[in-house]
Amino acid sequence: MEVVVIVMPINAGKTWKTLGWITFGSLSTYGFLNQYPDYVSIERKNVESFTKSDNELSDKVKISRQNNSGKVIRARSLEKAIDKSRQQLLQWKIKQTIPGYVIGVSVQGENVWTEGQGLADIENKVPCHQGTVMRIASISKSITGTMLAKMAEDDKINLDGSIYDYLNDGQFPRKKWQNETVDITVRQLAAHVGGIRSYKTEEEKKESADFYSKEFYLKDSFPTVTESLGLFKDDPLVAKPGTKFHYSTFAYTLIAAVMETKMESKDFAKDYEKFIRNELGLLHTHLDRNDTIIGDRSRHYCRDGKSGEIRNVPYVDNSYKWAGGGLLSNIPDLLQYGNLMLYSYLGVDHKGRVGFLRKSTVEEMWKPLENSSPNWQQDKSKGYGLGFSVVRDGHGNRRAYAAEPLFDNCAMHSGGAVGATSILVIEPENEIVVAIIANLQEAGQISAMGLEIAKIFSTSATSTAQLDDPSQL
Fold first, then answer.
1. Model confidence over 292-307: pLDDT tens digits?
2. Catalytic annotation, residues
3. Mind listing the domains of the chain with CATH numbers?
4. N or C: which end of the chain has fewer CB within 10 A?
């Protein structure tokens, strides 16, 4: 069977208009039109070859389609979810004055939507696209947590063992709390209940919000993890280990030092990159090195504190926090990673392949550790596990007509870097992964946006499941 296909170029310098849902016989697609197209051509394509080729689809949006009624129902439901999500994202972009962002959504292991909006480079008018690479900030903690969990599975590290089983006093001095020597476990560090401080100002020698701390803007290079420990190793604990949640990127630098002792190369950065490439298979995820040429790397921006004008961010060196906030990535890699974790948690994917990690391992990773949230005594369903913020069995906290969580079970992580903001959401029940990266520092409400989009697609998935019989249309 042949259909007529409208083929249009991607013109980075123009804007796009949504054509909406287009149907040619039994083939349906979602279309975009360049507002000022250089040309529009008509070609004839075989339906089967068309449905198998991504080259005929815009880089802006790729939705998998097949020529049967069930897939059409699903695609139509997804189209509505995409439309609704796009409108919310554009409102968010305007409100937050974001130069550019990239969004990606995966449903049941399939990437159903990836789209870039705005500019990756304002000065050179380079648009964002699905492959644009940005700083992912603290989502790095999730990837580090995955490597840590794998090392635990391989009996290289005991998560409930003392960090001093791996480090000596010279590397990280033993700590006291109220004049009593205390121990710190690897798991406590990973869940931010190890008592390790966060960023502080040099002038006041006290902690401050990340973006207002000079430590957040370090320009010095740290060739080794051990040298990075020098930033905080002699500082006192901020809480007794195990008793209080205290979010700390430095805690993950300390975890990196523990992991390094069990690595073949004894070089965390080297083995970390090897793990990301060779084991996770993330080919566009990099250590944020300034001197390395990285294809599709975005520029990063911030707002001027007085005028609100968009500015280039200052030069920073993130080598002191590779493990906790030092990675770059793009949306396809983040969706792939999200699915790797999702189908490890579920045990098997739709092709019958077992997960990268054991199901029991991810269940532990996605279980809130005791005292791992500021409101632990009031709500034990929310907290921090191993590399993830999690909601576990949240249905117990639902109250009629009151505020309630969007999901009863969810794993996620947000990130805030110099010049970038990010969110990764994994929702197991409907098998949904959402990732957003933006090239603006302090792009507010990105976590809420990620969760809301996941909810939109979960509603779409539920509606589709109820319409498996085409006769119900």
1. 999 999 999 999 989 9
2. 138
3. 1-58 (no CATH), 139-460 (3.40.710.10)
4. C
